[in-house]
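Researcher: Checking consistency across runs. Here is Exodeoxyribonuclease VII large subunit again:
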Amino acid sequence: MKPRHSAPDGDPNQRKWYVPEGTDLALFSAWLPAAMSSADLVPVPTSERLPSLGGAGREVAAPKKGVPLSQLLASVAQAVAQTFRSGVWTIVEVVETRARSGHVYLELSERSSDGSLLATARAIIWANVANRILPEFERATGASIAPGIKLLVRAKPNFKPQYGFSIEVDAIDPDYTLGDLEARKREIRARLQQEGIFDANKKLPPPWDFNAILVVAPQEAAGLGDFRVEANRLERFGICRFAYASSRFQGEGAAREIRDALLNALAHWGKSGNAPPDAVAIIRGGGAVNDLAWLNDYELAKTICCLGVPVLTGVGHERDSTIIDEVANTRFDTPSKVAAGIELVIKRRIDEAKAHFEFIAAQITRVGTGARALLDKGFTAVQSGALKQVAAARQTTFALVGELQLGAKLTVRDAKHESGVLMTDVGHNAYQLLAMAKREVPGVFSEIRGGACNVVKTARTLTTTRLEAIHDRTSLDVSRSRASIEQDLQTVALSARQQIASSRNAATAVFREVAGQGPERTLGRGFAIVLNELGQPVTSAADAKSMGELEIELKDGRVAVGVKRGL
């Protein structure tokens, strides 16, 4: 396409543009000046002779039908250069970045609200421009040029026949990128607030203590390493248990992976029969703003809001803030500060437990001292009562046994005396009868003998009967006395055994306490033992007054003392 000054009316200001015959004229309308239209393009007939560049009046052959590709593309390149002499501010999304020899090569795109692709283009930031605009952009936004970031760039279209269409970027507006990131957070925040769940996790009471924590973090991340330095120390001493779930934290689909890793880890935790974790910690190290922007996701934020476990976040650095930081129960600046916060709560509980233990120990000591005094007093009373009961039982038993023995002896003696008297009487009567019979007439000797025999038999029978009666009565009396004595002895022995057993049980407990203390410790508390000359304990003032000298055993030895009898 070339201009030719050939105005039929002789007006030298009128200019027409000529193109090869058969070319679609509408293709060039986009590059025409604003005052011209496609009607100003005049096809060159094949029979027309074009003036030669070699000199006036020379004619050349008419061009062939069609033009070379290079000529067409050169025309397009010229049109693009004339139309876009300066850059145009354009909204783009970065798909891919490459750096080579200081130059930055970009793949750009535009997508509709439903995610469908509308346009793509290649772009380049030359090394001298990149050295100037990229540091300023990163310093202003905290973000780096990476896939997924939206930019407002000043783009200058460039078309070259050998390489095709591309865009040269010579400026980037950081305010647009910051506004886009903030707008995304603002949209998610408003949606969660409208659903009434924005501060649901914040309203959960923070953990009173930490025993088990689920940690979601990128695998092998530097922030995770800082966290585990503290976490491993707590876990090594059995103070707190940590379970880890790994996920990507940047790139397309990272938020969904974090959500799936979190929910799957909690489901596995519940299936193992363990109680729910005390908290969930979501951590990652610092990074560019656009690296953290992947965490500004509605579904991930909603999952954290609806979680029944307090969520602790430690994402990035102090200046970084994401939507999950806003909805979490507790936000920390960095992963290491999350570990420090957990350790601080555990230390607070330990200090409280230590104070409570010391208070309980003091109360136990006070109660133990009082109980020991009561035991000492009770032991003394029980020991004294037991000794008195045993002495009384012994005296009663000895008295009863003596009375029973005396009664038995008296009964046997009386029976023996009565039997002797009867025998004497019987013998005396028998001799008298025998003498009388001898003096009587011999004729009645047989009668006398018979009568004597009868009398002797009768006397013998009577004596035997009386002896048996006396023996039976004596035996019965002795049996009754023995039974009564045995019953009394059993009653006394049973009562004594019961009393001794009760006293032994009561005294044993006290003996154990006293034995645990030992005589040395008893003497060490200020007590002393009073001994007589034989080294036996003296337990009453009366016994002490009856002695001339006494010894007092103290903690570190014995001291001899004299007794004043007038006291």
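Researcher: Does this match what you'd expect to see?
Model: One thing to look at in this run: Residues 4-12, 46-61 have pLDDT under 50 and may be disordered.
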